[in-house]
Design a protein that fits this description.
Elements lengths: L2 H26 L5 E6 L2 E6 H6 L13 E5 L6 E4 L4 E5 L8 E7 L4 E6 L11 E9 L3 E7 L13 E6 L3
Length: about 170
């Protein structure tokens, strides 16, 4: 065989292998495909299956969320949106002792919470970032964005589902 024939056969074989691998992953795992959404400088990766499952209403605005929302499968853990600058977070372990957090909306679907209690002079406050995935007035679904030292990727984080607690 000539060099040209060997090169052509190798190139065709490599291209066929790569296309087969790509098509196999798309056909076998269609919900793993991702969309990258850019909004006001904030890049977010959302799995296509999750994008179809959750929809934020087009008339949503950050002033719409208020009241107490309990985390799914929890007795008391959750957020209590007091006003546009303050939110309480209650842990499951300390139901009667919520943490007071400052809330700041980064855009109309993304907010950050910052601890108001200084734990150490040498450490910055705890900060968490959440993206509203869906909200219908009764159910609130948030996606937590990794802010820690860990190597976690945002697209692997679970969605946090809350239900409004009636008064």
């Amino acid at each position: 065989m000539t060099r040209k024939t060997i090169f052509t056969a190798s190139a065709v074989g490599l291209i066929t292998f790569l296309l087969g691998w790509l098509l196999h992953s798309i056909i076998m795992h269609p919900d793993k495909a991702t969309d990258v959404v850019q909004s006001e400088g904030f890049t977010d990766t959302i799995r296509n299956a999750d994008a179809r499952k959750f929809k934020v209403p087009t008339d949503f605005n950050n002033n719409t969320i208020s009241g107490r929302f309990i985390l799914a499968q929890s007795n008391c853990a959750g957020f209590n949106f007091i006003d546009t600058t303050t939110v309480l977070w209650t842990n499951e372990i300390a139901c009667d002792d919520p943490d007071t957090l400052r809330i700041r909306w980064l855009d109309n679907k993304t907010f950050m919470t910052k601890s108001t209690v200084k734990t150490s002079e040498h450490c910055p406050p705890m900060v968490d970032i959440y993206k509203v995935v869906s909200f219908d007035g009764k159910h609130l679904t948030l996606k937590s964005v990794e802010t820690g030292w860990a190597d976690s990727k945002n697209e692997n984080l679970d969605f946090l589902e809350f239900t409004r607690q009636s008064n």
